[in-house]
């Protein structure tokens, strides 16, 4: 047949691997980097964000007097939102890994990027406010005897760790959006 | 001459304007957007950042008891750094506007972007920590009679405004780096 002359059946480089079902859409696609949504690195980042946020939430909620300080109530709200957001995206990453497709659509990555930006900014601001209060109680007032200083410090540190794990997700998504 | 046939002397569209001395370097150049370093928008952003930071610094330093709270000392340090950084880049912008050249070099924009990221993160964290303390004094403890609540609030608000003016600079530089 003449067709086989024009399109030979042997493509040693361009042939798609048999185990990979992913079909790249030609327009509006993004490169697949570890840490991006739908990759194992991305799932690990989400898992870390979720774990640190949930530990921060539990430790802060275990103190009886956190509702008396506005910054600690704000921290509880912020890490709750962060843990819900990270859990949702961790589930989305697991799904993407199982069906072997990445999130390469511009609109989806833009949504993830905006959500990451909002939740990580909230978590960071709450962690900073709590750190200000914790340092005030512990160092400036020397009033740790009456307060749960170590629990406040642990919750604040875990919120900072959650923000630290959320930053790569945001920066990667933002960078891939800009360099589309 | 045959040269004038190949390169005619009349270029109605591509001719460089006589008043503009800027020569675009072909490789490693960036687009000129308002708000980027070297533009009037960029200078206005730097001026706003510097003004808000210096007002925040002055108001906080005018209170006699700010050194007793760690978060307020940190705010003074952060807005000092922010005002120095913004002043330097405002001067650089004025120079670029006067000689009519933009900062299109990748390395310079990367340096500006990293500096913006560091100073704006420091200013934001200091503003959040101060806001936590201010809300603690004003709302949770109701102790405004003994403290300079309004000055603390003004300094915190000005630091937030300075961060708000610094964000567009950082996002524009980061975006133009990624989409180079």
From TrEMBL, chains A, B:
It is found in: Cell membrane. It is a multi-pass membrane protein. Pfam families: CASP_dom. Residues 36-165 form the Casparian strip membrane protein domain. Keywords: Cell membrane, Membrane, Transmembrane, Transmembrane helix. It comes from the Eukaryota. One of its GO terms (cellular component) is plasma membrane. The chain crosses the membrane at residues 43-62, 74-99, 111-137, 157-178. Homodimer and heterodimers. Belongs to the Casparian strip membrane proteins (CASP) family. This is CASP-like protein.
């Amino acid at each position: 047949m003449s067709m086989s002359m024009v399109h030979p059946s042997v493509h040693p480089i361009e042939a798609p691997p048999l185990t990979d079902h992913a079909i790249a859409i030609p327009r509006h696609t993004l490169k697949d980097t570890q840490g991006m949504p739908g990759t194992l690195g991305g799932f690990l980042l989400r898992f870390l964000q979720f774990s640190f946020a949930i530990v921060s939430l539990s430790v802060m909620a275990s103190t009886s007097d956190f509702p008396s300080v506005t910054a600690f109530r704000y921290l509880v709200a912020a890490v709750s939102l962060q843990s819900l957001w990270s859990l949702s995206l961790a589930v989305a990453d697991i799904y993407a890994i199982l069906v072997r497709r990445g999130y390469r659509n511009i609109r989806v990555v833009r949504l993830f990027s905006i959500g990451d930006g909002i939740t990580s900014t909230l978590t960071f601001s709450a962690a900073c406010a709590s750190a200000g209060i914790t340092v005030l109680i512990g160092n400036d007032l020397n009033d740790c005897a009456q307060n749960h200083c170590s629990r406040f410090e642990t919750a604040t540190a875990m919120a900072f760790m959650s923000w630290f794990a959320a930053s790569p997700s945001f920066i990667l998504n933002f960078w891939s959006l800009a360099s589309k």
